[in-house]
Amino acid sequence: MESANNAAVESVPAPAYSLWQLILYALRLGTFGFGGPVALVGYMHRDLVEDRKWISESDYKEGLALAQLMPGPLAAQLMMYLGYVHYRNLGATLAGIAFVVPSFIMVLLIGMAYVGYGGLTWMQAVFYGVGAAVIGIIAISAYKLTTKSIGKDRLLWAIFLVAAAVTIITQSESVWLFLGAGVLVWFVKAPPKNWSKQGGMHGIALAAIPTPVTATVAGTLDWPVLLQIAVFFAEAGAFVFGSGLAIVPFLYGGVVTEHQWLTERQFVDAVAVAMITPGPVVITVGFIGYLVAGFPGAVVAALATFLPCYLFTIIPAPYFKKYGKQPGIIAFVDGVTAAAIGTIAGAVVVLGQRSITDITTALLALVTVVLLWKIKKLPEPVIVAAAAMIGLIVYPLIHS
């Protein structure tokens, strides 16, 4: 590990930014970055690659590929990897913490209000407006990512379209799709001369595929509540692939059905809290943990969820940096990236079906797209705040 780190350090040019600047950026994105994983990865590309040029296109693509291949929340892992690029484990650690903590504090405060005032009756009204605006935000982000990363390569476009279609049809993400796309482009553009010598990456990828053993053991032991929370949410962080939205079905099965910690209504409110707060969608685990066991439950749930994704980022990162410039690896990453962006585009459609339910929400999404297209520097939080106000006004009128 150390030799791999040393080799990577020697090949990386001096960064054009300080670690403190990156931490402040992660803190700001975690505080004001609305739209879920699809929008957040788009913001990182726009801000760090295109505008500030702190991160190279190749480093960003490597990070996106790693985040898609490994289990855990997409946006958080990508931020950790981007922190690793120039500042190694310290950068990954501090950038990840700065990105997650603001939204954790927000959901914790909302959780306190939820428990104190018996529910969030205004949540549906806010989400009615915000959900529609978020679709417009992520649609623009997906478009920019697609045009920037896919280019005119027909093979990558084919992979993009297949991934988008699979996501729309199945309404889920599959690591096998990413692996298959990477291997296909690898064999087409830079076929390995000797399979046995270059099978290491394939083996590493397969090692990341989850097994149900831990989940089975955890379900049969009678542990105190906090330990049960730690084990369950560690499983959620370690064995769920795809974006933060992919963790929702897993959480429902454990929180509502298996452990019966929350009612269905409480769980729906928890997901709504995650969607209307900035930062990673997975931070809903903090809200759930608070409802189950107060402040200690929130802290344990959040730590248990994000620790696996942190380890799944910093452990393979040196090897991505060391071998990432080889033609075969570049081809593999290109394939995974095309599938990842296709999945993101498909997620826009899936989320749109759930958030755009009438003419008002359709207009909100359309106006958001037009505003972001015409006004390049328009801050997304301004749009989200305006959409929330519209939701609070319009929703009661429609559902009175």
List the helices and strands and how they pair.
Blueprint: H1 2-11, H2 19-32, H3 36-51, H4 57-69, H5 74-117, H6 123-149, H7 154-170, H8 175-189, H9 200-207, H10 213-220, H11 225-239, H12 247-258, H13 264-276, H14 284-314, H15 317-323, H16 327-355, H17 359-374, H18 380-398
Helix pairs in contact: 1-15, 2-5, 3-5, 3-6, 4-5, 4-16, 5-14, 6-13, 6-16, 6-17, 6-18, 7-8, 7-16, 8-16, 11-12, 11-14, 13-14
Key terms for this structure?
400 residues; mainly alpha; 78% helix
Give an overview in words.
There is one protein chain. This protein has 2 domains: 2-209 and 309-398, no CATH class; 213-303, no CATH class. The model is unreliable at 1-11 and 195-223 (pLDDT under 50). The longest helix has 44 residues, at 74-117. It has 400 residues and is mainly alpha-helical. The chain has helices spanning 2-11, 19-32, 36-51, 57-69, 74-117, 123-149, 154-170, 175-189, 200-207, 213-220, 225-239, 247-258, 264-276, 284-314, 317-323, 327-355, 359-374, 380-398. It is built from 18 helices and no strands.
**Overall mean pLDDT:** 80
Number of domains: 2
Structure summary, number of beta strands = 0
What structural class do helix, strand and pairing data support? mainly alpha
Helix content: over 70%
N→C terminal distance: 62 Å
Flag low-confidence runs: 1-11, 195-223
Number of helices: 18
Using the alpha-carbon principal axes, give the shape: globular
Radius of gyration: 21 Å
Sheet with most strands: none
List SSEs in N-to-C order.
Answer: HHHHHHHHHHHHHHHHHH
| Residues in β-strands, percent | under 5%
